[in-house]
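Subject: rRNA methyltransferase 2, mitochondrial structure
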Amino acid sequence: MSGLYVRSASLVCCYPEPLRAFKSLKGKSNASARWVRRQWNDPVVKQAKREGLRSRAAFKLRELNDRFQLLRRGDVVLDLGAAPGGWTQVAVEATAPKKKPKNGQEPPPRVVALDLKHFDAVEGAAIVVGDFRQDKVRAQLDELLGGRKANVVLSDMAPSFSGNFLTDSQHQLRLCHNALKMAELYLRPGGNFATKILRCDGSEEFRADLKVAFDVVKAMKPQSSRPESTEMFLVAKGFKGVQPLAEADSDSAEDGDKQ
C-alpha cells in the first residue's frame, strides 16, 4: 500500500445536491484564490452549474460518448474515481431505460461509482467509498453488481497533482494501469473502457496494452478540457476477455481535478 492513507469503505446513502456556489476568497492561499477565480470565469463551469452538473468533467464524458458511443441505454457501468459525480451523472443519464419495470420494483443500480472520497449521492447510481484494491471494497462492488458484468468501465481518476509533470504523469499512468486491471476483472466481453491519461514516457506502452485487450483503441482530447491541460482520454472498445495484462499499482482511486 506504500503508506497510502485509505478511507474505510462504506456505501453512501443520501440525496444529491446541486453544485455549490463559491462563497469567498477571504483567507484562501494565493493558489486557492487563483483556482476560484478561474472557476468563476470558466464558461464550461458556468454551463455545468446551469445544467445542475457537478463538474466540467461531465462535458468531457458527453463528448467522448457522442463521438465513440461508449454508453447505451440499459448498460451496466463501473465509474472509477467518480467524485464529485459529474461522470456518474452523465452515465446515469445515458444508460437509464426509457420505461420503468412493469412490476413496479426498483431494478438494481446500473451505474456503480467508486472513489476514495465521500461525495453526494447521484440519483440512479450506487456509490462505494474505498480503495478498490481492498477485498472488502471489491466485495461491495460484487454485491451491488449482483453477478452482472459491466458493459462499460470508466476512469477519470487522477492523482493529487504536485506540479512536477514527470512525477504527476507517472502517477497518472499507474492509475491507468489500475483502471485497466479493474476492467479486466469486471468488464464483459465486447465491453468498452475509457480512461484519462497524460502524454508521457510509458503512455504509448499502455496504449499498446489496450490494443491487445480490445478490438479498437482511440485517443481524444475533448474540447471541454482546459486548453493548457496535457490530459487526453483513451477509449477502447470491444473487450476481448483476454488474460489480464495490468497489475494494480500503489495508487488507486485517488482524488483528481474534476473541475
